[in-house]
Amino acid sequence: MITTVTLNAAIDRTYYMDRFSINKVNRTKRIISEPGGKGINVSKILKILNINTVSTGFLGGLNGQLIKRLADEKGIHSDFAMIEGESRICLNIIDEYTNQTEILELGPTILEREWIGFKRKLLELANKSTYVILSGSLPKGLLTTAYQELIELVQQNGPRAIVDTSGQPLKEALKAKPFMIKPNIDELSEITNRPLQTDDEIMNALIELSHTGVSVVAVSRGSDGAMAAYDNCIYTISIPKLSVVNPVGSGDAFVAGLVSGFYDGESFEKSLIRASAAGTANALQEKAGDLSLEDLNSLEKQMSVNQFSFTK
Ligand SMILES: Nc1ncnc2c1ncn2[C@@H]1O[C@H](COP(=O)(O)OP(=O)(O)OP(=O)(O)O)[C@@H](O)[C@H]1O
Ligand SMILES: O=P(O)(O)OC[C@@]1(O)O[C@H](CO)[C@@H](O)[C@@H]1O
C-alpha cells in the first residue's frame, strides 16, 4: 500500500473565464471543484494507475466534509484526522488566453493535541505501507520540523518516505534523510542556496544532495522535462512539446508515476519515463490530479532517458 499525507488539504476550485483582469469585476464561465492538496492529488493518480493507496492528513469544517465526500466519490480510500479548524480552498483561475493565476489560502491552525493524534494515526498506516508520500505546505501551528519528524517516524517503522514540499520545511526534512525528494527548479535552488540555470548547475545540485543521504533526488522542470540522481547516476529526460490545458498537479502526477514504478518493481529508467508521462498527461487534463491512461501510454512511447554515472 502507498500512503499519501496532505497536512494542508484543500478544495481545489478552478474558475474558467473569458478574461481575468485585476481591478475589474470578473465572472466565471465554468467551475470545477476537486478534492485537492498535493498528497490527495498523488492518491488520485495512483488510483487511476490501479495502485492501492490511502490518503491521510487533516480535514476540518464544511470544507473538510466536502473534500472527504469528493474523495469518496472518486473511490479514494481515506483516513483523515478531523480537526477544529476549517480546511482551505485553493483557487486556480484559467482565462481564455491561457493565463493562469493561483490563489492559495493559508489553511487551518493545527492544535498540539491534533498533531499528537495524527502521528498515532500515521504510525498505524505506515505499518501497512511500502511508501509514505508527504506532500505540500504546512498548515499553521506546525513547526518547520514537522516533515522531519514524520519522516523519522515513518522510516523507523519500515516504509520509505518521499517528501515534496518547499522552503524551510524541505531543508529540515533533508536532515531525516528521506528516500526521495522531488523539488522543482525553484525549490532546488532554495535548498542549495544558489540560482540554477544551466544543466550542469542543476546536475551538480543533484549530486550534492545525493551525497546527503537522499537516495532519489528528482527535479521536475515543467515543459523542460526532468533530471534525477539515483545510485551514482544522473538521468535526464526531455518531453514532447504539447499545448497544455492545466499544469496544476503535474508535479504530483510526476511523484505518483515515479513511486508507482518503484512499487511495481520497474527499473529506475522506466519509472522516470512513467513519472514524466504522468506529469505531462496531467497537464493535458482540465482537473489537477487527473490523466487519461491512453495519453499516458502514448507519451511513455515518445520519451527516452539519457543516463551517465558520476563517482562519489
Ligand atoms: N507545460 C508542460 N508541458 C509538458 N509537460 C509538462 C508541462 N508542465 C509540467 N509537465 C510535466 O509534469 C512534470 C512536473 O511538472 P512541474 O515541474 O511543473 O512540477 P511542479 O512545479 O511540482 O508542479 P505543481 O506544483 O503544479 O504540481 C514535468 O516534469 C513534465 O513531465
Ligand atoms: O499550498 P501547497 O500545499 O503547497 O499547494 C497546494 C496546491 O496548489 O498544490 C496542488 C497542486 O500541486 C493543488 O492541488 C493545491 O491547491
UniProtKB/TrEMBL annotation:
It is an enzyme of class 2 (transferase). GO terms for cellular component: cytosol. Pathway: Carbohydrate metabolism; D-tagatose 6-phosphate degradation; D-glyceraldehyde 3-phosphate and glycerone phosphate from D-tagatose 6-phosphate: step 1/2. Keywords: ATP-binding, Kinase, Lactose metabolism, Nucleotide-binding, Transferase. Pfam families: PfkB. Residues 7-290 form the Carbohydrate kinase PfkB domain. It catalyses: D-tagatofuranose 6-phosphate + ATP = D-tagatofuranose 1,6-bisphosphate + ADP + H(+); beta-D-fructose 1-phosphate + ATP = beta-D-fructose 1,6-bisphosphate + ADP + H(+). Gene3D superfamilies: 3.40.1190.20. Its EC number is 2.7.1.144. GO terms for biological process: carbohydrate catabolic process; D-tagatose 6-phosphate catabolic process; lactose metabolic process; small molecule metabolic process. It comes from the Bacteria. Catalyzes the ATP-dependent phosphorylation of fructose-l-phosphate to fructose-l,6-bisphosphate. This is Tagatose-6-phosphate kinase.
